[in-house]
Amino acid sequence: MHVLILGGDGYLGWPTAMYFSKRGYEVTVVDNYFRRNSCTELDVGMLYPIPSLVERAKIWHELTGQEIKVVIGDLTDAEVMRSLFDGTVEYSWAIHKKFSGIPETIVHYAEQPSAPYSLISYKHANITITNNLLVTNNLMFAVRDFARDCHIIKLGTMGEYGTPNIDIEEGWLEIEHKGRKDTFLYPRQAGSIYHTSKIMDTDLMWFGVRMWDLRVTDLLQGPVYGMVTEEASIDDRLKTIFNYDEIFGTIVNRFIVQAIADYPLTVYGKGGQTRGYLNINDTLQCVHLSEKNPAKNGELRIYNQIMETFSVNELAEMTQCVGREMGYDVQIKKIENPRNEAEEHYYNPTYQGLLDLGVKPHYLDNDSMKKMFKVVEQYKQNIRRDVIFKGVKW
Fold it and tell me: End-to-end CA distance of the chain, in Å?
């Protein structure tokens, strides 16, 4: 089975590449280093240095004998995308340069992934919209033209739903209106330009499914935490990117770094904002099980990819408790919310579908958080306090 991973250098993309490679899949990854370049442009710190994508693929091959083919290219260029299907692709690194053939599965991570980034300025909003929509549109047309039976697994976000005052279903909602019933995509009300672009991604894919019988699974994922996966544990150089700044760092990762750096935990406003969360290892399970249970032609299958829900206050209190057990004087500081969002709200999402497929969750508790503390402690000297909070407002 040939799996093509778009955005294969990223926080989720590289662990996914190793995960599939270890299980015997033929893997090709594509990236243009957007995340790395943005971290340099914005001067936000990574917790530890990361080898280039080509270097990581070489290390993986040396340690395992498995090949992950690498393409460095910008997928907003339609011809770069189409080269991955028509055999004209130019590999930046591969043991065997021969075209691997049309992929059976495509995992689409190739997006600008940050809500704060999308609202730094109109320029960053434009980058977010053009990157995310052009990549998705180019992918949809390439699959239409070359590989209609290929299964697309697109990483969406729970942020597409917003925080409605009714239960959140898994992607779809049955509506009765004036005595008639129909099923529609669940109403979306995003709270950032990034999340709005993800709604548009879903709409593009839904168009392709309806018009051309494409096969799409949309994984609406909550914030992910962690950095250690089974595959990366064999060599520190294989660890994934880990950000702890306000722009690219997810909240659990940020809080743990803040606790170790003696930086008060930044709780925005009242701290009642509630979201669904999952461990990075559960992301890998979810993508793999989605590959093994693909959508049918003409089907847009949607899963809410979370394992449990927490409020910001609950995460801060857990971080404080664990940090103090480990000898850190962790303080919590509620600050004026730089975001335009509800700080107290109803939140009750359904997320049974992936559990039914067989996902075995890694739950967040004091013990699992303590393990994360111990990993981050190894890089304590690298933490830059000046990049933790930059105050992007919207």
Answer: 44
* CB contact at 8 A, 317 and 252: no
Cα 123 to Cα 58, 116, 126, 127, 128, distances in angstroms? 36, 13, 5, 6, 9
8 Å CB contact between 240 and 234 = no
Catalytic residue, candidates 69, 154, 198, 239? 198
Of 271, 64, 283, 108, the closest CA to residue 204 belongs to: 108
| CA separation, residue 167 to residues 46, 93, 191, 348 (Å) | 37, 47, 18, 5
**Along the chain (394 residues), what's the average pLDDT of each consecutive run of 10 residues?**
97 98 98 97 94 98 98 98 97 94 98 98 98 98 98 98 97 97 97 98 98 98 97 96 97 98 98 98 98 98 98 98 98 96 97 98 98 97 95 93
Q: Report the 10 Å Cβ neighbour count for 118.
A: 25
Three-state DSSP at 39 gives: helix
pTM, rounded to two decimals? 0.97
194 is catalytic: yes
Query: Among this protein's residues, is 28 annotated catalytic?
Result: no
* CATH superfamily placement of domain 2-233+280-306+348-361: NAD(P)-binding Rossmann-like Domain (3.40.50.720)
Q: Which of 194, 225, 328, 347 is catalytic?
A: 194
Place of tokens 């004209």: 88
Neighbours of 377 (CB within 10 A): 12
Cα(62)–Cα(328) distance, rounded to whole angstroms?
39
- The answer to whether 157 is a known catalytic residue is yes
- CB neighbours of 186 closer than 8 A, spacing ≥ 6? 161, 168, 169, 171, 172, 173
